[in-house]
């Protein structure tokens, strides 16, 4: 049974008990490093000194098994700055711990965690960029989302949004003028790929240094679609104004999955119970989104690796159109659904219900045949195999170091799926499997997505069965939620769901008003993209393009 | 030729029918050919002809920014198939494209690059702005990093509203553009509030002084005066 939790490494189980983590045991492990303990809704927070970050985190990683640094949240209070490292375990993400690092208001700085968790590198750069905290001993502390010439840190309290800014084109200097980037090897050549390039899946800019046709060095440059999602969410009210934005993070039709991330965090924050009927509808709709998203991932991947605009690409889009029609019937929109509400969903299934169920069943009946066609065209194709088998290899250790999740982690054999490990919605009542592949190469990642489509179809089928038999007088689609939500001040929560690309987490801190004081998005693509240099070093350019395609990033979610 | 056959000229045929001839397969007789009637010549202005040609065969730039580009992909692909309207050949290089669809939010870091891409397209070039973000910044209008519409940077011929617009709406927008091109209309190319210019040419002020050590005089920059944005 794959729904069983993987076996644990008992040596690293400090404080693990039958009913959750025993934080006292963890506190004993850290001893005098802990200044204070905070209660967050998802876990306890240990407050530590800003110059002991590396020591504390490496103890927790080496001796207590916290191998997943899910997110780094930075924020400014009236009297201090604060960085929160959200730690979890790949074996069991319900074992969580927040490490809270305060730093002084006048010169905010604390020790970097990038030497312990590689993933903290980018997360801390983002924190520096948007909030303005300096991380000592960080390997390369520069702006990451905003242009390098930007003035001020936009999510800090005294930022003036109306001040003029100057942005230069310097990153795109003509490579021919200065193509010998590396001093030791005069033969290297610098090439800009993107941000306008057909193979970058959006507006990604990859700075590559080539040695012949092989990649000597590579750096993804992001921020070309940084549209202030966190600021937008901090300006909106919990009840209605935030929900439209999640649709636009991962815009590849994964709207409901994203909405669910916000819904789950906010519902737990405000203590709202969602009716079961609504949970089943959510589960069904979310899996439809997952199918649509994976279909596009496959279609564009085929486009990347064998320039196939005619067959596989169109097949993928054809199947997506059907799913999008189903979702449109349900939500009224093709792409930006805005269907979930805090406490349930916006409205019931479309009438006549039988007709809608029949449409879904037709789609599910056709799906195995369509997948077979795609397997014939893609995974069974010799050219495809030559391009994908054993290229872009990512080891399980690298996956964990970079906090990669979703199909990228599962393609490397890391058995991690929030739907099973930290259940929400109706997933734990249904019969389905978590798909993993052991290869860790581009081929495995594609295979994981294709097999996940089958699993999603199984989930949808069971949901349809459930919905068909649901008694008519028990179809409660929304819980009773106050018109204006004002969660108690200073409640903090980090909650995640399994989005199409991986662990999509939200951190919210309330301040007693009807708007969040801090709204932080943990995007799976942001962490997944960090693995690209590891996968491409020494490979050929076309293999790098294939690796990029198999990561299936979406820039709206990378940049937010 | 045997004598019992009636010569064609002796039959009662119109000039048009004669021009079409018996020999030619019916399939070759298009509506256009029927419209020409008896004469193989058209009398028109060269400009008018060129505009008709331009509107009937447009090469689109393959250009994706954000959410709208997903609907744009659907417009190009199966089911909606923009190619049916003579405008569905996506070109990867701006040097081969006539039309740029701007599908998504433009942020401060991207605007100079978009301007660069637009500048590289050969004249005459046309712009379809897709979605609310390219009209006003859309849902992200209040963002600290968001350009309030594509028209701050490049001239736009057709705006297609929606968040995102349905593929049908985009097709309608492109068809409208074709109509306008065929009639010889296009938006005037004017100086936009945000231009690419050399850093040395910027007016001296506090910000320019501050950045003087970081940016070369000759570097191309774009200066955003957010206060002047609509």
Automatic annotation (TrEMBL), chain A:
<dbReference type="InterPro" id="IPR022885">
    <property type="entry name" value="NDH1_su_D/H"/>
</dbReference>
<keyword id="KW-0813">Transport</keyword>
<dbReference type="Pfam" id="PF00329">
    <property type="entry name" value="Complex1_30kDa"/>
</dbReference>
<dbReference type="InterPro" id="IPR037232">
    <property type="entry name" value="NADH_quin_OxRdtase_su_C/D-like"/>
</dbReference>
<keyword id="KW-1003">Cell membrane</keyword>
<keyword id="KW-0511">Multifunctional enzyme</keyword>
<dbReference type="Pfam" id="PF00346">
    <property type="entry name" value="Complex1_49kDa"/>
</dbReference>
<comment type="subunit">
    <text>NDH-1 is composed of 13 different subunits. Subunits NuoB, CD, E, F, and G constitute the peripheral sector of the complex.</text>
</comment>
<dbReference type="InterPro" id="IPR001135">
    <property type="entry name" value="NADH_Q_OxRdtase_suD"/>
</dbReference>
<feature type="domain" description="NADH-quinone oxidoreductase subunit D">
    <location>
        <begin position="310"/>
        <end position="560"/>
    </location>
</feature>
<dbReference type="InterPro" id="IPR001268">
    <property type="entry name" value="NADH_UbQ_OxRdtase_30kDa_su"/>
</dbReference>
<dbReference type="InterPro" id="IPR029014">
    <property type="entry name" value="NiFe-Hase_large"/>
</dbReference>
<comment type="similarity">
    <text>In the C-terminal section; belongs to the complex I 49 kDa subunit family.</text>
</comment>
<keyword id="KW-0472">Membrane</keyword>
<feature type="domain" description="NADH:ubiquinone oxidoreductase 30kDa subunit">
    <location>
        <begin position="47"/>
        <end position="163"/>
    </location>
</feature>
<dbReference type="InterPro" id="IPR020396">
    <property type="entry name" value="NADH_UbQ_OxRdtase_CS"/>
</dbReference>
<protein>
    <submittedName>
        <fullName>NADH-quinone oxidoreductase subunit D</fullName>
    </submittedName>
</protein>
<keyword id="KW-0520">NAD</keyword>
Automatic annotation (TrEMBL), chain B:
<feature type="region of interest" description="Disordered">
    <location>
        <begin position="1"/>
        <end position="24"/>
    </location>
</feature>
<keyword id="KW-0249">Electron transport</keyword>
<protein>
    <submittedName>
        <fullName>NADH dehydrogenase</fullName>
    </submittedName>
</protein>
<keyword id="KW-0560">Oxidoreductase</keyword>
<dbReference type="GO" id="GO:0016491">
    <property type="term" value="F:oxidoreductase activity"/>
</dbReference>
<comment type="similarity">
    <text>Belongs to the complex I 20 kDa subunit family.</text>
</comment>
<keyword id="KW-0408">Iron</keyword>
<feature type="domain" description="NADH:ubiquinone oxidoreductase-like 20kDa subunit">
    <location>
        <begin position="67"/>
        <end position="177"/>
    </location>
</feature>
<keyword id="KW-0813">Transport</keyword>
<dbReference type="GO" id="GO:0015990">
    <property type="term" value="P:electron transport coupled proton transport"/>
</dbReference>
<dbReference type="GO" id="GO:0048038">
    <property type="term" value="F:quinone binding"/>
</dbReference>
<dbReference type="InterPro" id="IPR006137">
    <property type="entry name" value="NADH_UbQ_OxRdtase-like_20kDa"/>
</dbReference>
<dbReference type="InterPro" id="IPR006138">
    <property type="entry name" value="NADH_UQ_OxRdtase_20Kd_su"/>
</dbReference>
<keyword id="KW-0411">Iron-sulfur</keyword>
<dbReference type="GO" id="GO:0009060">
    <property type="term" value="P:aerobic respiration"/>
</dbReference>
<dbReference type="GO" id="GO:0051539">
    <property type="term" value="F:4 iron, 4 sulfur cluster binding"/>
</dbReference>
<keyword id="KW-0520">NAD</keyword>
<keyword id="KW-0479">Metal-binding</keyword>
<dbReference type="Pfam" id="PF01058">
    <property type="entry name" value="Oxidored_q6"/>
</dbReference>
<dbReference type="GO" id="GO:0008137">
    <property type="term" value="F:NADH dehydrogenase (ubiquinone) activity"/>
</dbReference>
<dbReference type="GO" id="GO:0045271">
    <property type="term" value="C:respiratory chain complex I"/>
</dbReference>
<keyword id="KW-0004">4Fe-4S</keyword>
């Amino acid at each position: 049974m794959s729904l069983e939790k993987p076996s644990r490494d008992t040596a690293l189980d400090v404080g693990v008990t039958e009913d959750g983590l025993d934080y006292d045991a963890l506190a004993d492990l850290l001893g005098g490093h802990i200044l204070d303990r905070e209660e967050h809704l998802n876990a306890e927070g240990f407050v530590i000194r800003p110059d002991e970050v590396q020591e504390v985190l490496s103890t927790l990683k080496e001796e207590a098994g916290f191998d997943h640094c899910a997110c780094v949240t930075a924020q400014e209070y009236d009297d201090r700055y604060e960085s929160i490292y959200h730690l979890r375990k790949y074996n069991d993400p319900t074992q969580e711990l927040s490490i809270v690092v305060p730093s002084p208001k006048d010169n905010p700085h604390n020790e970097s965690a990038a030497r312990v968790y590689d993933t903290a590198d980018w997360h801390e750069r983002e924190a520096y960029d948007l909030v303005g905290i300096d991380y000592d001993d960080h390997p390369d502390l520069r702006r990451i989302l905003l242009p390098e010439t930007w003035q001020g840190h936009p999510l800090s309290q005294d930022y003036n949004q109306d001040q003029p800014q100057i942005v230069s084109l310097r990153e795109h200097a003509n490579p021919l003028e200065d193509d010998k980037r590396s001093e030791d090897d005069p033969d290297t050549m610098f090439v800009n790929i993107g941000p306008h390039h057909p193979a970058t899946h959006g507006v990604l800019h990859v700075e590559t240094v080539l040695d012949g046709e092989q990649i000597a060095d590579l750096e993804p440059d992001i921020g070309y679609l940084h549209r202030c999602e966190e600021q937008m969410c901090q300006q909106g009210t919990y009840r209605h104004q935030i929900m439209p934005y999640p649709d636009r993070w991962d815009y590849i039709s994964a709207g409901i999955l994203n909405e669910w991330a916000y819904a789950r965090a906010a519902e737990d924050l405000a203590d709202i119970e969602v009716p079961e009927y609504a949970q089943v509808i959510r589960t069904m709709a979310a899996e439809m989104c997952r199918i649509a998203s994976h279909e596009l991932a496959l279609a564009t991947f085929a486009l990347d690796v064998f320039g196939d605009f005619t067959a596989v690409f169109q097949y993928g889009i054809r199947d997506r159109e059907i799913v999008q029609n189903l979702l449109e019937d349900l939500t009224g929109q093709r792409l930006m659904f805005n269907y979930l509400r805090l406490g349930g969903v916006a409205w019931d299934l479309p009438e006549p219900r039988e007709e809608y169920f029949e449409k879904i069943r037709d789609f599910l009946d056709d799906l195995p045949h369509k997948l077979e066609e795609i397997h014939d065209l893609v995974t069974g194709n010799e050219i495809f195999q030559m391009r994908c088998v054993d290229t872009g290899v990512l080891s399980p250790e690298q996956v964990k170091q970079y906090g990669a999740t979703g199909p990228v982690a599962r393609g490397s054999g890391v058995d991690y799926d929030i739907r099973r490990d930290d259940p929400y919605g109706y997933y734990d009542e249904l019969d389905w499997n978590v798909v993993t592949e052991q290869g860790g190469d581009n081929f495995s990642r594609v295979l994981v997505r294709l097999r996940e489509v089958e699993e999603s179809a199984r989930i949808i089928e069971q949901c349809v069965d459930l919905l068909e038999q649901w008694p008519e007088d028990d179809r409660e689609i929304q819980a009773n939620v106050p018109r204006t939500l004002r969660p108690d001040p200073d409640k903090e929560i980090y909650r995640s769901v399994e989005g199409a690309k991986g662990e999509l987490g939200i951190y919210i801190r309330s301040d007693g008003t009807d708007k969040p004081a801090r709204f932080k998005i943990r995007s799976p693509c942001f962490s997944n993209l960090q693995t690209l240099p590891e996968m491409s070093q020494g490979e050929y350019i076309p293999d790098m393009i294939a690796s990029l395609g198999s990561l299936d990033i979406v820039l709206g979610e990378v940049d937010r | 030729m045997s004598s019992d056959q009636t010569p064609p000229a002796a039959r009662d045929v119109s000039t048009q029918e004669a021009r079409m001839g018996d020999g030619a397969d019916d399939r070759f007789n298009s509506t256009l050919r029927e419209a020409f009637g008896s004469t193989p010549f058209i009398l028109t202005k060269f400009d008018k002809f060129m505009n008709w040609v331009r509107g009937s065969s447009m090469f689109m730039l393959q250009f994706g920014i954000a959410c709208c580009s997903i609907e744009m992909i659907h417009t190009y692909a199966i089911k909606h198939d923009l190619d049916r309207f003579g405008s569905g050949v996506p070109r990867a290089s701006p040097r081969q494209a006539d039309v740029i669809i701007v599908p998504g939010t433009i942020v401060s870091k991207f605007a100079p690059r978009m301007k660069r891409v637009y500048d590289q397209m050969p004249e005459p070039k046309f712009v379809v702005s897709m979605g609310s973000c390219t009209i006003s910044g859309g849902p992200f209008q209040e963002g600290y990093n968001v350009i309030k519409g594509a028209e701050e940077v490049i001239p736009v011929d057709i705006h297609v509203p929606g968040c995102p617009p349905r593929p049908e709406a985009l097709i309608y927008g492109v068809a409208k553009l074709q109509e306008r091109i065929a009639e010889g209309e296009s938006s005037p190319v004017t100086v936009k509030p945000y231009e690419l210019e050399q850093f040395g040419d910027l007016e001296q002020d506090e910000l320019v002084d501050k950045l003087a050590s970081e940016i070369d005089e000759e570097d191309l920059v774009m200066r955003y005066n957010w206060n002047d944005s609509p």
